[in-house]
Amino acid sequence: MTDHPGVPLPKPVFDPDLLSRCISCGFCLPACPTYAETGDEASSPRGRINLMRALQNGDLAPDDPTLKEQSSQCLGCRACEPVCPAGVEYGQLLEQWRDHQWRGRRMPVLARALMLAAGRRVPFRLLGRLRGTPRTTVVETSALASGGASLMLGCFERVLFPRVGRAALALVPGLTVPASQSCCGALHAHNGDTATGERLAHRMGEDLPGTIVTTSGGCAAHLASVLGRARVRELSDHLATGSAYRPLGELRVDGRRARVALQDSCHLRNGLGVRTAPRDLLAEIAHYVELPSAGTCCGAAGTYSLLRPRESRRILTTKIDEVEAAGVDFVAAVNPGCLRQLRTGLRRRRSQVKAVHLAELLLMAGESRFPVA
Amino acid sequence: MHATARAALRSVVGPGHFRETDGELVPYSRDATPLFQARPDAVVFPADTAEVGAVLDIATRYAVPVIPRGAGSNLCAATVASRGGIVLVLTRLNRILEIAPAELLARVQPGVTSATLAEAASRDGLLWAPDPGSRTVATVGGTIATNAGGLRGLKYGVTRDYVLGLEAVLPTGEVIRTGGRLHKDVAGYDLTRLLTGSEGTLAVITEATLALRPAPTTTGTGIAYFSDLAAAGRAVTAIIAAGILPATLEFLDRSCIRAVEDFARLGLRTDAGALLLFGDDGESDAVAHALERMSDVCTAHHALDVTTAAEVAQAEALLAARRCALPALSRLGELTILEDATVPRPRIAEMVDRIDAIGARHGVTIATFGHAGDGNLHPTCVVKSQDDTDTVTRAERAFAEIFAAAIDLGGTITGEHGVGAAKLPYLSTQLGADQIDLLRRLKTAFDPAGILNPGKLGS
Ligand SMILES: Cc1cc2nc3c(=O)[nH]c(=O)nc-3n(C[C@H](O)[C@H](O)[C@H](O)COP(=O)(O)OP(=O)(O)OC[C@H]3O[C@@H](n4cnc5c(N)ncnc54)[C@H](O)[C@@H]3O)c2cc1C
Ligand code: SF4
Ligand code: SF4
Q1: Which of B271, B302, B325 is the last residue of a domain?
Q2: Which of A232, B64, B202, B327 could join A224 in a cystine, given CB atoms 3.0 to 4.6 angstroms apart?
Q3: Chain B residue closest to A18 (CA)?
Q4: Model confidence over B233-277: pLDDT tens digits?
Q5: How far is B192 from chain A (nearest CA, A)?
Q6: Closest of A271, A126, A309 to residue A186, by C-alpha
Q7: Does B252 fall in a domain?
Q8: Number of neighbours of residue A140 by Cβ within 10 angstroms
Q9: What is the ipTM of this complex?
C-alpha cells in the first residue's frame, strides 16, 4: 500500500457541502449508464465522487489520467440524482469538476469551438432567418411588467430545427419572441466554463421578459439553476400546467391512431423533475408507448456525441433497437440534442420511425396533417 | 507489490480487467462505511472460477492480501484494503445459472444482485426472501458473505436460512463444493453455514445454490404513528407476544421520518415521534386478518394513528422509502455514523430508552431506525461538520456505551452488518478469548498464509 499524504489544493475545486453529502451507499449505481457499460466503479457516480474527493484533498495528482477520463466519460445525464436518497447534487459537482479539469487549454477543442460560436449572436440569427425561424418581436417594456411569457429560441435549435420554434408559437400564440437573444449558457456550464454559463443565463434573463419558455429541456434546467425555477418553463411543462392550452386533434397514421414513444430529456427529467407532462400530452393525441429506457440518456448528452462518438453511438444503438422493437410511428423529443441524436440513429438504421419534437407533433395533431420530413 | 506479480495478474484476467494506477484505485479504496479508507495495490475483475483460482495462486506466491468485493455496500469496512493488496471484484460473475421451480431453488454466480435474483424468481412465481435495504446493488455473494438480514427477517429469517450449497475457491487454490441441491444433507461439518457470514476471510464464493419459496399471493402493509420510538417498540413486543409473526415490522423515529419524507414525499406524518411499518404476505384473507390484528394491537398501545395501504404500489413505495432511511439521514450533516445493535425482541423498548439516555448524556443527537421485529436497531449519529472532532469523539463514546448496553440486555454488537475492520476491536468483548482463539484456528486452517481479507474477522 502506498502512502498518500494528501495535500489539499490551494483553492477548493468543489463546494465542500456538496461533496460531503454522498455516503457511498451505492444506490445510484444501477441508474448510471456508464457504469452499466463498463462495470468499473470509476465510471459510476459513487466512484466519480470519490475521485472528486481525492482531487479536492490532494490524494490524487490534478493531472491524473483517470480524473481526466472520468470527467469526460460521464454523460452528465444526472440519472444519479433522483435516485440518491442523500440528495447529492451530482450535476453541480460535475460542472465544478469540468470547470477545473477543462480549464484553458485542457478544454476539448471541439467544445471550445462550439462555445465560441454559440456565444455570438449574429451568425445564428442570420442562419435562422434564412431557414425560417419565427419572427422576432420588438418587446416593449410594458410586456416585461405584465409578467407575460416569452419564447427562447435556442442557439442551435433555431438553426437546426427552426420548425420547432414555429410550432411552439403556434401552440401558444401569446408568447413574445424578443429579437435580442443568444445562447443560454448551458453549453458552457456543461463543458467546463461555469462563469460564462452563468453570465449568459443572466443575460437571457434580462433579454426575455416574464416566464422564459423553451423547447429545450437542457436549456430549461440550466436557466432554472441560475435564474430560479420560477422564471423558467420547458414547453411541455408550460403547456400542461402553466397555460390554458389543451391538446387538440389526433395523430393518425394509415387510418389509425398513431403510436408514439418519448425520449425524456435527461436534465428535464432528472434536473427539473418533469416526467408526466410530455407523456400526458402525447397520450391525448396518440397511443402513447413507454420505451423501457425512455428515462435513460440517448447518448447525445450535450457535446458528448461529438466529443466521445464511439460511446455515444453504442448507447444510441441500444436505444434505436428499442425504438424499432416498440413498433411506434414516432418518437418524440423534448430537447434539440436528443432530436438530432435520434434522427441520426434512425437514419443510419433506415428506420421507418420518425423522430419529431413534441411541439411539432402536437401541432400536427391539431392541424391533422402529417410531416413530410 | 512486485512487478512480476502485477504482470502475472494482468495476464490472468487480461489487461482490460486489471487496474493499478492511482486514479483507478481510488474508487476501490472504500465501501459504504464512513471513516475507513485505504488504497489497494491493484484491482482485478476475474471472469470465472478458474481466474479467481489463478489470482489467489499468484497472491499466495507473492504473499499479497486479497480482498473479495461485491458491490461494496457493506457497512463494516469489510472490503477496505487496510493492508493493501488486490481487490478481487466479483461483479463480472453475474449470471443466473438456473431457476428450478420444481426443486424450489436457484443456482447463481456471486455477482448477481439481490434484486435481479428476486425479479427472476418472481417470474417463476417464486420468492428470493433475503431482502437487505441495499437489494438493488448488493450482490448475492456479498449478501451471503455478510449473512445479511433485511426487511422480512421476522417471518423469513436471514440469508443463512436460504443457502443450500456453495462453490468456493480456497486461498490455497482448491475449489470446494459444499452442500448442494438437497434440502437435507448432514454429511460433514456444515461448511456452507461457516462460509455464510465469513466476510471474505475464509474462501471466495464463486457459485451458490439457494432456496426459494413459493411467492405469496398477497402483500399488505400498514403504518402506525406513535408519540415516541419506545412506544412503537412496546407495540412491536405486544404484536409478537400476541402470536402474530408478520413479514415486516420496521420502525423509524422522528428524525428518520423527516429525512425519508424529504426524499420520498409520500405524505408521511412528520409531526409524529415514531412510525411503525407493519406488513404481511400470504393468502389474502390471512393477510387482511393479520393487518387487522396488528392495527388493533397498535391502537391498544396508544398509536396516534393507524392506516393500512390497500394498494400494492403504495406498500412497495413505503418499503422503498424505509430502505432509504440511512442515506436519507445523511441530508442532515456531513458525517453519518451508524450502528447495528440488536437485542432480544421483548427488550426493544428498553434498548430504545437506553439509547436516548446515552445520547442525552453525551450531548449527541441519535436518530434510530431498524428492523424492530428482529430486535435490530440502527442508532445513527449525524454530525454536522466532519471537522467537529469534539462531537465525533462524543459520538464514539456514546456508541461504545450503546454496544455495552446491547450486550448487557443479552444482545449483540452487530445483528446484520458484520464485523469487518470496523467492529473487530469490539469482538472479543462479545465472544470471549476462547472463542476468538478458535476463530483464529479456523481461519488458519482455511488460509494458512493469511492472504484472504487480513485485518478483518479471524485476525
Ligand atoms: C443503505 C444501506 C442499507 C443496507 N441495508 C441492509 C439490511 O437491511 N440488512 C443487511 O444485512 N445489510 C444491509 N446493508 C449492508 C450491505 O448492503 C449488505 O451486507 C450487502 O449484502 C453486502 O453486499 P455487497 O455485494 O455490497 O458486498 P460487499 O460490501 O462488496 O462485501 C461484503 C463482504 O462480503 C465479502 N464478499 C463479497 N463477495 C464475496 C464473494 N463472492 N466471496 C467471498 N466473500 C465475498 C467481502 O469481502 C466483504 O467482506 C445495507 C447497506 C446500505 C448502504
Ligand atoms: S451519490 Fe447518493 S446514491 Fe450515490 S453513493 Fe452517494 S449517497 Fe449513495
Ligand atoms: S451523470 Fe449520468 S453518466 Fe454521469 S455519473 Fe450520473 S448517471 Fe452516471
Answers
A1: B325
A2: A232
A3: B334
A4: 999 999 999 999 999 999 999 999 999 999 999 889 999 999 999
A5: 28
A6: A271
A7: yes
A8: 11
A9: 0.94
